[in-house]
Fold this protein.
Amino acid sequence: MKEKKLPKSVCDDFQERSEAIGSKGVVVKVGLVGEGKSFLSQNMTYCPNCGDLVHFTVQDEVLEEEFKGVMNKEIMIKFPFRVGRCNECGHEVATDNEYNFRRSDAKWKAYREQEQK
């Protein structure tokens, strides 16, 4: 039986190219995951405060932020959200591709509820 040769993964290709030019950089091999998950892995993401890929934890929090609503009327709103936090510095980090959309939706929902009162 003839063995079927699989195409090289992006990580393997990158590793070979790095070795060919003598790169001494660190290569992180992780598998890509499906939609709604972190781009690189299920427990690492980019932290803009650290400027690097970091491990993160997710926790439920009540966020309080100033919000410019209709006609630039500034109000303070509180809204519950499942927040990703960098394990290194504690900065809020996006845990997947939909993170900022969900955060925006939660913020708008809290604003609309507060305006109805």
Observations:
- The chain has a mean pLDDT of 77.
- The longest strand covers residues 52-68.
- The CA atoms of residues 77 and 108 lie 10 Å apart.
